[in-house]
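DUF4352 domain-containing protein: structure tokens wanted.
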Amino acid sequence: MSQTQQQPQFPPFQPQPPQQVARNGLGTAALILGIIGALSGIVPFLFWLAGILGVIALILGLTGRGRAKRGEATNKGVALTGVILALVSLGLAVFGAVTTFKAVDDAVDEINKSVSDAQPKDTKPSGDAKDAGKSDTGADDEKPDPDKALEAGDSVIYDDDLTVTVSNAVSYNPSEYAAGHTAGNHAYKVTVTVTNDSKEKFDSTLLTADARAGKDGVDAEQVFDEKVGTGFDGTILPGKKATVVYAFDAPADAKNLTVEVTPSFEYNATQWDLKL
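Answer:
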């Protein structure tokens, strides 16, 4: 009786599925952008950068958390931290925008206030010009127009009670060391007086004076001659005044000299039409 030898039985070979690689990139990117956005939001005027990074980080973080829930990623905590930082970035962006816009509005208001304060509020003609503006009853018939050139001896008063007065033009002979005088032209002295009736000291070094001569308005070059033309120096305290002499070179046939004085960049310029 023969015996049949049995062959060993092996289970069929089944290939193992490839191991899935964790997709942690979105969570990591959300964390990085959230950190940068939050740091940017600390500086108010970088609110726009914090807002952009916050939005991107929020989207990436939520997507990264979704992957982690589906088992496609292993950094659920990192993605959650990115979402939290994204929300912080957005909050700081809103705060920075409000702060920045308020600061800009305040700055514009201050500039407008400074410009308004620099507008001439009135002019006070002196001498004959003052009497000419009054009727027989002593009341002013009409105030001088600050948009028109004033006459010699007239004063302009700004809203802060700073007063500027320009005298008539007086002919004089420059010395041989004078600068700005051309042979054949005539030189004229003009006295500028600043009275500070405001509540703050006035920096007189910022005052500038220019002139044009004749009917064609030719630029009259300023003459510097010893103490003539040196301009103001230092500050003028409240309740005090200061006077300096400027000189301008005009063509010999010029009949008038238009002097323009600007107390500083905070004040409007005012012109005086002086007869020669």
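The radius of gyration is 40 Å. The first strand starts at residue 120 and ends at 124.

Cheers.
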